[in-house]
Amino acid sequence: MKSIIFAILFFTTNLLLSQTSNTPASRVIFDNFLQSLSNSTSGGYGNAGTFFNKPKKIVGNIYVFENWNNKCKITIGDEVFKLTNINLNMKTDRFEAQIGKDSMFVFNTSNVDYIFINNRKFKSFYVPQKNKNRNFEIIYDGNDLKVLKGFEVGIKYNEPDPLMVKKNVDNYFTTVTYYIKNGENINKIKLKKKSILALFNDKADLVSKYVKENKLSYKKEKDINKMFIYYDSL
Known about the structure:
This protein folds into two domains: 2-189, no CATH class; 190-234, no CATH class. It is 24% helix and 35% strand. It is built from five helices and 13 strands. It has helices at 2-14, 24-39, 193-197, 204-213, 221-233, and strands at residues 16-18, 49-53, 72-76, 79-83, 86-89, 94-98, 103-107, 114-117, 120-127, 132-141, 145-156, 171-182, 185-189. The strands form two sheets. A nine-stranded antiparallel beta sheet has the order 1-4-3-8-9-10-11-12-13. Strands 2-7-6-5 form a four-stranded antiparallel beta sheet, covered by helices on one side. The model is unreliable at 1-27 and 36-46 (pLDDT under 50).
């Protein structure tokens, strides 16, 4: 019960509601978020997310950000909600807020427009190939084409020491994959010259010239963003 009270105090003191609009839909979502905190005492779950106990750790990090001191804005319609202590779990592909030493709050992002963390932009998109939604970081957010960044984590299992001299531990490792969203389709792409220029069709030569003149790299996210901005300006 104490942990639930702490959770309610935590979110009511750290969630700063921006009164930019009285949008009914977003107000319902925010109310459901708070209601889910109180419902957790009886095992119920609101629309905002759920609670869970953290499992035993394997060495390494399963979160996108190294720590939990992150500035976050969540946009729902015309309203903005601000909070701290949020991170993206790469193992479960869920946004979580740290409630206590052994507890997390899991966000339901299906009704969220965007999540901004430390000036990085995230959004949940439906992936037809997987038949489910997935959270991505947005590298470029165009009307037709979007460049997305997906995160996954794996486990490197180390062989035990037969002599029992040292204790070998298993380690997490991170895999980053880039995607192009074209309409409803989301497909993997490599940050290579040939792959990127192929997206620009008959304007590929103009983009290639722009890249050379501005000494841009096909492997750097900020330069990829500049290429697509230029392409959309043609």
